[in-house]
Amino acid sequence: MRPTAKFSISFGLVTIPVAAYNATDSAASVSFVRIHTADGGRVRNQPVCSLEGTEVAPDEIGRGYRTEDDAVVPLSDQDLDALPLPTAKTLTILAFVAGGDIDPLQMGKGYYLGVDGPAAAKPYALLRDAMERHQRVGLGKIALHGRETLAMLRPVEGVLVMQVLLWPHQIRPMTGVLPEREVKVAANEVRAAETLMDSFGELSEEDVHDHYREALEEIVAAKLADREPEFETVREQPAGQVMDLMAALQDSVRAAKRARGEPAEEAGDSEEAGEAAGAGGGARRSGRAAARTAPARKTTAGGKTTAGGKTAARKTAGSGTGGQAAGSASAKKGAAAGKKTAGRGRKAG
Which of 241, 262, 290 is the last residue of a domain? Predict the structure, then answer.
Protein backbone atom coordinates (compact mmCIF):
# COMPACT_ATOMS: atom_id res chain seq x y z
CA MET A 1 0.00 0.00 0.00
CA ARG A 2 1.06 3.55 -0.67
CA PRO A 3 0.58 6.15 2.09
CA THR A 4 -2.02 8.83 1.47
CA ALA A 5 -0.45 11.31 3.91
CA LYS A 6 2.49 11.75 6.26
CA PHE A 7 2.42 13.65 9.54
CA SER A 8 3.45 13.34 13.18
CA ILE A 9 1.57 12.34 16.32
CA SER A 10 2.11 14.81 19.14
CA PHE A 11 1.95 12.95 22.47
CA GLY A 12 3.00 15.53 25.04
CA LEU A 13 6.65 16.24 24.23
CA VAL A 14 6.91 12.98 22.28
CA THR A 15 6.70 13.25 18.49
CA ILE A 16 6.01 10.17 16.37
CA PRO A 17 6.39 10.47 12.57
CA VAL A 18 3.78 8.27 10.88
CA ALA A 19 2.45 7.47 7.43
CA ALA A 20 -1.32 7.07 6.92
CA TYR A 21 -2.77 4.29 4.74
CA ASN A 22 -6.41 3.90 3.71
CA ALA A 23 -7.97 1.21 5.90
CA THR A 24 -10.98 0.70 3.64
CA ASP A 25 -11.28 -0.20 -0.04
CA SER A 26 -14.08 1.65 -1.79
CA ALA A 27 -13.31 -0.20 -5.04
CA ALA A 28 -14.46 -3.47 -3.44
CA SER A 29 -18.02 -2.18 -3.01
CA VAL A 30 -20.73 -2.52 -5.61
CA SER A 31 -20.87 0.54 -7.87
CA PHE A 32 -22.77 1.49 -10.99
CA VAL A 33 -22.26 3.93 -13.85
CA ARG A 34 -25.01 6.04 -15.33
CA ILE A 35 -26.09 5.17 -18.86
CA HIS A 36 -28.49 6.45 -21.50
CA THR A 37 -31.28 3.85 -21.45
CA ALA A 38 -32.04 4.43 -25.14
CA ASP A 39 -28.66 3.28 -26.46
CA GLY A 40 -26.53 2.24 -23.43
CA GLY A 41 -24.09 5.13 -23.80
CA ARG A 42 -22.26 6.39 -20.72
CA VAL A 43 -23.62 9.55 -19.09
CA ARG A 44 -20.69 11.49 -17.66
CA ASN A 45 -20.37 14.42 -15.28
CA GLN A 46 -18.69 17.28 -17.07
CA PRO A 47 -17.55 20.45 -15.26
CA VAL A 48 -19.28 23.39 -16.90
CA CYS A 49 -18.88 27.08 -16.04
CA SER A 50 -22.22 28.51 -14.92
CA LEU A 51 -21.41 31.90 -16.49
CA GLU A 52 -19.99 30.85 -19.85
CA GLY A 53 -21.79 27.54 -20.28
CA THR A 54 -18.59 25.88 -21.52
CA GLU A 55 -16.66 22.86 -20.24
CA VAL A 56 -13.77 23.72 -17.90
CA ALA A 57 -10.38 21.99 -18.00
CA PRO A 58 -9.19 20.35 -14.75
CA ASP A 59 -6.24 22.74 -14.38
CA GLU A 60 -8.65 25.70 -14.46
CA ILE A 61 -10.76 24.46 -11.54
CA GLY A 62 -10.08 26.03 -8.14
CA ARG A 63 -11.77 26.42 -4.74
CA GLY A 64 -14.38 28.90 -3.69
CA TYR A 65 -16.13 29.54 -0.36
CA ARG A 66 -19.85 30.28 -0.52
CA THR A 67 -21.06 32.81 2.06
CA GLU A 68 -24.48 33.00 3.71
CA ASP A 69 -25.68 35.56 1.13
CA ASP A 70 -24.66 33.10 -1.66
CA ALA A 71 -21.57 35.03 -2.72
CA VAL A 72 -18.56 32.93 -3.75
CA VAL A 73 -15.09 33.99 -2.58
CA PRO A 74 -12.16 32.42 -4.49
CA LEU A 75 -9.50 30.76 -2.31
CA SER A 76 -6.08 29.73 -3.60
CA ASP A 77 -3.72 27.06 -2.27
CA GLN A 78 -1.59 29.87 -0.84
CA ASP A 79 -4.60 31.16 1.12
CA LEU A 80 -5.21 27.74 2.65
CA ASP A 81 -1.52 27.18 3.41
CA ALA A 82 -1.49 30.48 5.31
CA LEU A 83 -4.15 29.27 7.76
CA PRO A 84 -2.77 29.26 11.34
CA LEU A 85 -3.33 25.52 11.87
CA PRO A 86 -0.85 23.76 14.14
CA THR A 87 -2.54 20.52 13.07
CA ALA A 88 -1.50 20.89 9.42
CA LYS A 89 1.33 18.37 9.82
CA THR A 90 0.58 17.02 13.28
CA LEU A 91 -2.10 14.93 14.94
CA THR A 92 -2.25 16.73 18.27
CA ILE A 93 -3.70 14.48 20.97
CA LEU A 94 -5.91 16.50 23.32
CA ALA A 95 -7.21 13.83 25.70
CA PHE A 96 -7.45 10.09 26.36
CA VAL A 97 -10.97 8.79 26.98
CA ALA A 98 -12.86 5.52 27.14
CA GLY A 99 -13.91 4.25 23.75
CA GLY A 100 -17.52 4.08 24.89
CA ASP A 101 -17.54 7.86 25.26
CA ILE A 102 -17.35 8.29 21.47
CA ASP A 103 -20.69 8.58 19.73
CA PRO A 104 -20.73 6.06 16.83
CA LEU A 105 -22.58 8.64 14.73
CA GLN A 106 -19.36 10.63 14.61
CA MET A 107 -17.30 7.81 13.11
CA GLY A 108 -15.85 8.47 9.66
CA LYS A 109 -13.09 7.11 7.45
CA GLY A 110 -10.33 5.00 8.98
CA TYR A 111 -6.57 4.98 8.36
CA TYR A 112 -3.81 2.59 9.39
CA LEU A 113 -0.85 4.49 10.80
CA GLY A 114 2.60 3.03 10.21
CA VAL A 115 5.97 4.28 11.43
CA ASP A 116 7.72 6.74 9.13
CA GLY A 117 11.37 5.91 9.74
CA PRO A 118 13.31 3.70 12.20
CA ALA A 119 13.42 6.41 14.90
CA ALA A 120 9.63 6.34 15.19
CA ALA A 121 9.41 2.63 16.07
CA LYS A 122 9.96 2.89 19.83
CA PRO A 123 7.67 5.86 20.60
CA TYR A 124 5.06 4.27 18.31
CA ALA A 125 5.15 1.03 20.30
CA LEU A 126 5.17 2.97 23.57
CA LEU A 127 1.97 4.88 22.74
CA ARG A 128 0.28 1.75 21.39
CA ASP A 129 1.08 -0.37 24.44
CA ALA A 130 0.15 2.41 26.88
CA MET A 131 -3.28 2.78 25.31
CA GLU A 132 -3.73 -0.99 25.35
CA ARG A 133 -2.90 -1.23 29.06
CA HIS A 134 -4.80 1.90 30.03
CA GLN A 135 -7.85 0.92 27.93
CA ARG A 136 -8.15 4.37 26.44
CA VAL A 137 -8.36 5.93 22.99
CA GLY A 138 -6.76 9.22 22.02
CA LEU A 139 -8.75 12.21 20.80
CA GLY A 140 -7.07 14.92 18.79
CA LYS A 141 -7.16 17.23 15.78
CA ILE A 142 -5.57 16.84 12.37
CA ALA A 143 -5.80 18.82 9.13
CA LEU A 144 -6.51 16.48 6.22
CA HIS A 145 -7.29 17.43 2.62
CA GLY A 146 -7.45 21.13 3.34
CA ARG A 147 -9.68 21.04 6.41
CA GLU A 148 -9.27 20.40 10.12
CA THR A 149 -11.09 17.49 11.66
CA LEU A 150 -11.40 15.59 14.91
CA ALA A 151 -9.69 12.22 15.00
CA MET A 152 -9.63 9.19 17.27
CA LEU A 153 -6.51 7.10 17.74
CA ARG A 154 -6.77 3.50 18.93
CA PRO A 155 -4.68 0.32 18.85
CA VAL A 156 -5.96 -2.56 16.71
CA GLU A 157 -3.99 -5.81 16.55
CA GLY A 158 -0.68 -4.06 17.16
CA VAL A 159 -1.35 -1.20 14.73
CA LEU A 160 -2.41 2.35 15.55
CA VAL A 161 -5.60 3.22 13.69
CA MET A 162 -6.83 6.76 13.14
CA GLN A 163 -10.56 7.28 12.73
CA VAL A 164 -11.80 10.61 11.37
CA LEU A 165 -14.67 11.99 13.47
CA LEU A 166 -17.43 14.42 12.65
CA TRP A 167 -17.69 17.56 14.75
CA PRO A 168 -20.54 17.44 17.31
CA HIS A 169 -22.44 20.21 15.49
CA GLN A 170 -22.50 18.00 12.37
CA ILE A 171 -24.75 15.46 14.11
CA ARG A 172 -28.38 16.33 13.53
CA PRO A 173 -30.82 16.41 16.45
CA MET A 174 -33.28 13.52 16.79
CA THR A 175 -36.34 15.75 16.94
CA GLY A 176 -39.36 14.05 15.41
CA VAL A 177 -37.75 10.60 15.17
CA LEU A 178 -39.21 8.94 18.28
CA PRO A 179 -42.91 7.90 18.36
CA GLU A 180 -45.23 10.75 19.29
CA ARG A 181 -46.71 8.86 22.20
CA GLU A 182 -44.79 6.75 24.70
CA VAL A 183 -44.79 3.00 24.09
CA LYS A 184 -45.05 0.67 27.07
CA VAL A 185 -43.10 -2.59 26.85
CA ALA A 186 -43.75 -5.30 29.45
CA ALA A 187 -40.83 -6.72 31.42
CA ASN A 188 -41.51 -10.28 30.27
CA GLU A 189 -41.43 -9.10 26.65
CA VAL A 190 -38.01 -7.55 27.21
CA ARG A 191 -36.76 -10.78 28.80
CA ALA A 192 -38.12 -12.79 25.86
CA ALA A 193 -36.31 -10.45 23.45
CA GLU A 194 -33.08 -10.98 25.44
CA THR A 195 -33.55 -14.74 25.12
CA LEU A 196 -33.93 -14.32 21.37
CA MET A 197 -30.74 -12.21 21.26
CA ASP A 198 -28.83 -14.95 23.08
CA SER A 199 -30.12 -17.55 20.61
CA PHE A 200 -28.47 -15.82 17.65
CA GLY A 201 -25.02 -17.12 18.58
CA GLU A 202 -21.74 -15.91 17.06
CA LEU A 203 -21.14 -14.46 13.61
CA SER A 204 -19.98 -16.95 11.02
CA GLU A 205 -17.86 -16.38 7.95
CA GLU A 206 -20.98 -16.87 5.84
CA ASP A 207 -22.74 -14.06 7.72
CA VAL A 208 -20.16 -11.45 6.73
CA HIS A 209 -19.87 -12.59 3.11
CA ASP A 210 -21.02 -10.17 0.39
CA HIS A 211 -23.69 -12.30 -1.31
CA TYR A 212 -25.20 -9.28 -3.06
CA ARG A 213 -21.98 -8.62 -4.97
CA GLU A 214 -21.75 -12.26 -6.08
CA ALA A 215 -25.37 -12.29 -7.23
CA LEU A 216 -24.84 -9.06 -9.18
CA GLU A 217 -21.75 -10.49 -10.86
CA GLU A 218 -23.77 -13.60 -11.85
CA ILE A 219 -26.43 -11.39 -13.45
CA VAL A 220 -23.75 -9.52 -15.41
CA ALA A 221 -22.08 -12.78 -16.51
CA ALA A 222 -25.46 -14.20 -17.58
CA LYS A 223 -26.25 -11.13 -19.67
CA LEU A 224 -22.86 -11.30 -21.38
CA ALA A 225 -23.37 -15.02 -22.11
CA ASP A 226 -27.00 -14.52 -23.18
CA ARG A 227 -28.32 -16.97 -20.60
CA GLU A 228 -30.51 -16.97 -17.54
CA PRO A 229 -28.76 -16.24 -14.21
CA GLU A 230 -28.35 -19.21 -11.89
CA PHE A 231 -29.06 -18.66 -8.22
CA GLU A 232 -29.40 -20.94 -5.26
CA THR A 233 -32.94 -21.25 -3.98
CA VAL A 234 -33.41 -18.95 -1.01
CA ARG A 235 -36.38 -19.44 1.27
CA GLU A 236 -38.04 -16.11 1.92
CA GLN A 237 -38.66 -15.14 5.52
CA PRO A 238 -42.35 -14.88 6.41
CA ALA A 239 -43.51 -11.30 6.72
CA GLY A 240 -46.68 -9.77 8.07
CA GLN A 241 -48.14 -7.76 10.88
CA VAL A 242 -47.19 -9.01 14.33
CA MET A 243 -50.37 -9.60 16.28
CA ASP A 244 -48.89 -11.46 19.27
CA LEU A 245 -45.43 -10.07 20.10
CA MET A 246 -44.60 -12.70 22.73
CA ALA A 247 -45.56 -15.57 20.41
CA ALA A 248 -43.45 -14.06 17.63
CA LEU A 249 -40.44 -13.86 19.96
CA GLN A 250 -40.84 -17.48 21.06
CA ASP A 251 -41.24 -18.67 17.45
CA SER A 252 -38.10 -16.71 16.51
CA VAL A 253 -36.08 -18.46 19.24
CA ARG A 254 -37.20 -21.85 17.98
CA ALA A 255 -36.42 -20.92 14.38
CA ALA A 256 -32.93 -19.74 15.34
CA LYS A 257 -32.24 -23.02 17.13
CA ARG A 258 -33.46 -25.09 14.19
CA ALA A 259 -31.25 -23.08 11.84
CA ARG A 260 -28.22 -24.10 13.94
CA GLY A 261 -29.33 -27.73 14.12
CA GLU A 262 -30.23 -27.52 17.80
CA PRO A 263 -33.41 -29.10 19.19
CA ALA A 264 -36.24 -26.58 19.41
CA GLU A 265 -39.45 -26.73 21.43
CA GLU A 266 -42.45 -28.24 19.71
CA ALA A 267 -45.73 -26.39 19.39
CA GLY A 268 -47.01 -28.08 22.53
CA ASP A 269 -44.14 -26.64 24.52
CA SER A 270 -45.08 -23.03 23.79
CA GLU A 271 -46.65 -22.57 27.21
CA GLU A 272 -43.47 -23.87 28.87
CA ALA A 273 -41.37 -21.54 26.70
CA GLY A 274 -43.57 -18.60 27.69
CA GLU A 275 -43.08 -19.38 31.37
CA ALA A 276 -39.33 -19.54 30.86
CA ALA A 277 -39.35 -16.17 29.10
CA GLY A 278 -41.44 -14.66 31.87
CA ALA A 279 -38.97 -15.91 34.46
CA GLY A 280 -36.11 -14.18 32.71
CA GLY A 281 -35.23 -16.87 30.22
CA GLY A 282 -32.17 -17.84 32.27
CA ALA A 283 -33.17 -21.46 32.75
CA ARG A 284 -33.79 -22.01 29.06
CA ARG A 285 -30.81 -20.23 27.55
CA SER A 286 -28.45 -22.38 25.54
CA GLY A 287 -25.11 -23.46 26.93
CA ARG A 288 -23.35 -21.03 24.63
CA ALA A 289 -25.40 -18.09 25.91
CA ALA A 290 -24.99 -19.15 29.56
CA ALA A 291 -21.21 -19.32 29.13
CA ARG A 292 -21.02 -15.65 28.23
CA THR A 293 -19.66 -13.56 31.05
CA ALA A 294 -19.44 -10.11 29.44
CA PRO A 295 -21.49 -7.69 31.58
CA ALA A 296 -24.26 -5.75 29.87
CA ARG A 297 -23.40 -2.15 29.18
CA LYS A 298 -25.45 0.47 30.95
CA THR A 299 -26.72 3.41 28.92
CA THR A 300 -27.42 6.77 30.46
CA ALA A 301 -30.44 8.40 28.91
CA GLY A 302 -29.04 11.86 28.43
CA GLY A 303 -25.45 11.97 29.60
CA LYS A 304 -23.50 10.66 26.61
CA THR A 305 -20.31 12.57 25.92
CA THR A 306 -19.46 13.24 22.31
CA ALA A 307 -15.92 13.40 20.97
CA GLY A 308 -16.12 17.18 21.03
CA GLY A 309 -16.47 17.22 24.81
CA LYS A 310 -20.13 18.22 24.78
CA THR A 311 -23.04 16.35 26.34
CA ALA A 312 -25.45 15.06 23.76
CA ALA A 313 -28.98 14.92 25.12
CA ARG A 314 -29.88 11.90 23.07
CA LYS A 315 -32.23 9.32 24.52
CA THR A 316 -31.50 6.46 22.20
CA ALA A 317 -30.21 2.95 22.63
CA GLY A 318 -27.95 3.40 19.60
CA SER A 319 -25.77 6.01 21.31
CA GLY A 320 -25.17 3.65 24.20
CA THR A 321 -23.15 1.30 22.07
CA GLY A 322 -20.17 3.58 21.64
CA GLY A 323 -17.84 0.76 22.69
CA GLN A 324 -17.92 -0.28 19.08
CA ALA A 325 -15.83 2.76 18.30
CA ALA A 326 -12.92 1.21 20.14
CA GLY A 327 -13.44 -2.25 18.67
CA SER A 328 -16.26 -4.63 19.68
CA ALA A 329 -15.81 -7.06 22.53
CA SER A 330 -16.67 -10.00 20.28
CA ALA A 331 -13.84 -9.17 17.87
CA LYS A 332 -11.45 -9.02 20.84
CA LYS A 333 -12.34 -12.65 21.56
CA GLY A 334 -10.45 -13.52 18.41
CA ALA A 335 -13.35 -14.76 16.29
CA ALA A 336 -12.12 -15.04 12.73
CA ALA A 337 -15.42 -13.86 11.27
CA GLY A 338 -15.66 -10.95 13.67
CA LYS A 339 -12.40 -9.54 12.37
CA LYS A 340 -14.05 -8.89 9.03
CA THR A 341 -16.76 -6.65 10.48
CA ALA A 342 -16.57 -2.92 10.88
CA GLY A 343 -16.04 -3.31 14.60
CA ARG A 344 -13.02 -5.52 14.28
CA GLY A 345 -9.98 -5.00 16.36
CA ARG A 346 -9.43 -5.09 20.06
CA LYS A 347 -11.58 -3.19 22.45
CA ALA A 348 -9.45 -0.23 23.36
CA GLY A 349 -11.99 1.50 25.54
Answer: 290
